Predict the structure of D-alanyl-D-alanine carboxypeptidase/D-alanyl-D-alanine-endopeptidase.
Amino acid sequence: MVVPELRPWRAAGPRVKRFANAVRPRLALALGTAKPQVARLVSTVRPLLADLPRPRTPSTLQYTAGAATAGLVLAAGVVTLAGPWDATGQRTAERDRAVALERAGGADHGAAGAAGEPRPAPSAPPVLTGLGPATAPADPGQAPAKGATPLADVLDPLLASAALGDTHAAVVVDAATGRRLYGTGADKGLTPASTTKLATAVAALNALGPDHRFTTRTAFTAAGGELVLVGGGDPTLTAHADAAGWASLRTLATKTAAALRERGVHKVTLAYDTSLYTGPALHSIGVNDNLAQVVALAADEGRTDDSASGPVARVADPAKDAARKFAGFLEAAGITTTAPGPAKGTGRAGTFASVTSPPLSALVERMLTNSDNDIAEALARQTALASGQPASFAGGARAIAAQLKRLGLPLTGTSFHDGSGLDRTDRLTADLLTAILVEAGAPDHPGLRPLLTGLPIAHFTGTLSARYADGAAGLVHAKTGTLTGVNTLAGTVVDRSGRLLTFAFLASGTKDPMAAQTALDKTATALATCACG
């Protein structure tokens, strides 16, 4: 017999097992620490249990009552041991710690939109303590803590693995102080692959703010009966029936059809405008399953299936495809249209109906978690527009570099050519990548926090969900990067002493991508399991 209520638990079994494996070491440590107190508590509770009434034929209810009484006593003891507590129910130690670390931040960025428009999403509060210089070199005269293994002794043999090819660079920084703990080839510009998205993310967040939204709209000219679908560069616009919180092309069609009917219009000439972006729409890698043509109007990234991430064949003309779908939704709402064609010059036309994306913070998180190339290239162009550059591949690259310079980040040895990292001529350094991660946690830049919250989590989310089955599951949060002959990894990790570290590992000339990936994962795991000096 199958109990229906158990089905969700069975489905969740693999994830629960992975979570249990991740937290088991911490629970063991906590239980070991609490064991003496618990033993004393049990000795106190045992006489109370002995005094409970023992009927000859105890009922289930009586057993339950007795167990509940013992459980409440035991729970009260554990809570007491975990205290002290204040009047609000917060542990006083946690309260004092929160006060000590409190920083300004968490406020909305910018005023609320016009009536009927979504309010800006509040930014995340600071998550790190105050930082020093982004990547201050380690003091060569400073010895590690007594008994601690020097970090170089741990990392040097791992990074010397033949699986990491003929060239590599690595930097490890203490996130709380900004002090560099380890560095080799720190300023060497290497092909970063998708870790480029860290630079794209911080540039977009700095230029636009985490609460910025992208608008897709329609414009209507009553005299000519022309309706124009105007692309606003929202890479997450969807035509799926379930929009899952993203801007919906179906909703825009419904709003537009209602507005047309109010005017007594039931037939329109349909056009679409993609003039927000300039320059080539096709990436230098050519037609590729990893990226659609980069245009200001597309639905579901021009995918030819129902997927939301990962490589898949794309439509040849994403803007035209989106316009055709929009025409179909209008027809379903009672509005007849012509076959859609391209149009320009509607930038100053009034908005007839519109839909807006979630805040930029959500787009950044989706981009980093899934390593989404389409979102990355769109954000590079949006950064260009906000920086006074043309919304093209070249303009986006210049804008990213300019925003990083504005933040005071180290650009020696770097060269940008796109926003996704698919261009093999991109060059980033391990020094820059760790500096970006440190900057994202700085208390004076709360708007950059989505860069950290969007990082894939080892063995749980995104491009790391199938990695780190042992050891560092849940402890490593990092952006991956893979091209032929290139493997990279950059992110954060909590070491055995509880210290938060930022790291960047870049390897070029790799022969076996899986062997290189494993070597990088072992190196990051070594950071998690070490309390090194």
